[in-house]
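User: Hi! I'm working on a homework problem where we have to compare a predicted structure to a textbook description. Could you give me the structure for the chain below?
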Amino acid sequence: MASLRIDHLQGSYLCGILGALMTKSNQMAYITAQSFQATDEELRGFELGAKSINSDIKIIPSYTGDWNDAAKAKEATLALISAGADVVYQWLDNASPAVLKTTQESIFSKSQGSLAAKT
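Assistant: Happy to help. Predicted C-alpha cells:
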C-alpha cells in the first residue's frame, strides 16, 4: 500500500496563470462543492497564479454543496457569468460536464477543467 498527496496549489497556480492570460474582464470564477483544505488550497493556487500575471484580477468562489448535482453546477456557473466572470475553473465530480457545457454555450466565457473533468 502507498499513499498519495496531491499538491493542489501547484496545479491550480498554473491554471490561474492561463486564466489570467485569457480573461478580458479581470473576473474569474472557481466552482467546487465544499470548502475544505484541498479545495481551499486549489482556490489559493488559482488566485496566486492569476495575480502573478495581473494583480487586479478578482476570483469569485462558489460552492454548490454537491459534487454531482448538474443543475446546481449549471445554476452556479450562470450566476458567475452574470456577475462578470469570463474564466471558470471548477473542481466537481459528475457535475463537471454541466460547468463545461454552460461555459461553452456562453460566447463570453472560457472554461478550464480540473482533475474531475477527465473524459
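For your comparison, note the following. DSSP finds four helices and four strands in the chain. The first strand starts at residue 27 and ends at 32. Good luck with the assignment!
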